[in-house]
Each structure stands twice: as structure tokens, then as C-alpha cells.
Amino acid sequence: MDRHTLSVLVENKPGVLTRIAGMFARRNYNIHSLAVGPTDDPRVSRLTLVVGTEAVQLEQIVKQLNKLVHVLKIVELDAGESVQRELQLVKVAADAATRSQIIELADVFRAKIVDVDHDSITIEAAGNPGKLEAMIELLEPYGIREMVRSGTIALARGTKSITDGAKLRMQRVV
């Protein structure tokens, strides 16, 4: 099963996210990651969905999403042709003996120390999912107390844009 990243422009209206999540639930598709946020146009929001599925199922997902009234455009973002980032916060057990090692490890990953307590350190890291997974793997021996990760956000590299060719369709958004 492959992971696919979909960038979806939707009308910024109440209930749109519920309809999309409901469509996935009804068809028993799993969403690995979901991030939603505003765009430069306040009438439009952008969803970034990461789904684990075969190509045939992905085609069905895209067709079903396109049937939803408030969906304006869907683009699959290939990992090599897009910039993909996540944010994660990790609280790691840290005593006087391990604190400096954990701080050095965070520096290697260009992460920030955002909280220090007597027996823990909280690290903020941003990057592609592979980088964040590698950092977690190296922090596990110290004892991860708590962790949270945002959904993936992504943009096509270079001059490509999801809004290319979609201006006419976006004009209908009221």
C-alpha cells in the first residue's frame, strides 16, 4: 500500500470537512494525515490529505471527492515534486546525565528546545515525515513521555500551483 498526498481546495463553508471525513468513513478509507488551513483567498481553504491506498482506490477517492459540492480542485502531490512538512513536539525524559546529549541530538535535527523541566525536555521539530521519524527513533532510548505531530502540509515545487487553471472555477465561490 502506497502513501499518496492530496492537496484539495474547498469552499470555506461550515460542514465541508465533515462531509469529506464522512465520505472516507463510509467507504472505509483510512486517512493517515489531515491538515486544513486558510489560503490567500478567505473564501477558500486547503486540505492536505495523506492516504494509504492502492492506485485504483486512489482514483475512486479522487472521483468521490470531486462529486462533493464544495470541492473546487484536487491535485496529487508526488513526494519528489513537492515540499512536504510536519511539525512535532516531543517530551523526552532527561536527567542531568542525559540532558546535554538530548540537546545535541535536537541540534543535529535543527530542532528547538521549547521547554525544560527538572526531568524532561520538550523539543519542537519541523521537517519532512522521514526526518521526524528518524529523530523519534534516536530519542526513544531516552524515554519519550509524550508526543504530538501535525498533519502533513505540502506545496508543489517551483512554479506549479494548485490554483493554475482553476481561476474560473474559483470565481463561482461566493
TrEMBL record:
GO cellular component: cytosol
GO MF term set: acetolactate synthase activity; acetolactate synthase regulator activity
Domain of life per record: Bacteria
Keyword hit for Amino-acid biosynthesis: yes
Domain called ACT: residue spans: 5-79
InterPro entries cross-referenced by the UniProt entry: Acetalactate_synth_ssu (IPR004789), Acetolactate_synth/TF_NikR_C (IPR027271), Acetolactate_synth_ssu_C (IPR019455), ACT-like_dom_sf (IPR045865), ACT_dom (IPR002912), AHAS_ACT (IPR039557), AHAS_small-like_ACT (IPR054480)
Reaction(s) catalysed by this chain's protein: 2 pyruvate + H(+) = (2S)-2-acetolactate + CO2
Pathway as given in its UniProt record: Amino-acid biosynthesis; L-isoleucine biosynthesis; L-isoleucine from 2-oxobutanoate: step 1/4; Amino-acid biosynthesis; L-valine biosynthesis; L-valine from pyruvate: step 1/4
Biological-process GO terms, alphabetical: isoleucine biosynthetic process; L-valine biosynthetic process
Keyword entries, A-Z: Amino-acid biosynthesis, Branched-chain amino acid biosynthesis, Transferase
Enzyme Commission no: 2.2.1.6
Presence of keyword Amino-acid biosynthesis: yes
Family assignment from sequence similarity: Belongs to the acetolactate synthase small subunit family.
Biological role: Catalyzes the conversion of 2 pyruvate molecules into acetolactate in the first common step of the biosynthetic pathway of the branched-amino acids such as leucine, isoleucine, and valine.
Quaternary structure, from the entry: Dimer of large and small chains.
Protein name: Acetolactate synthase small subunit
Gene name of this polypeptide: ilvH
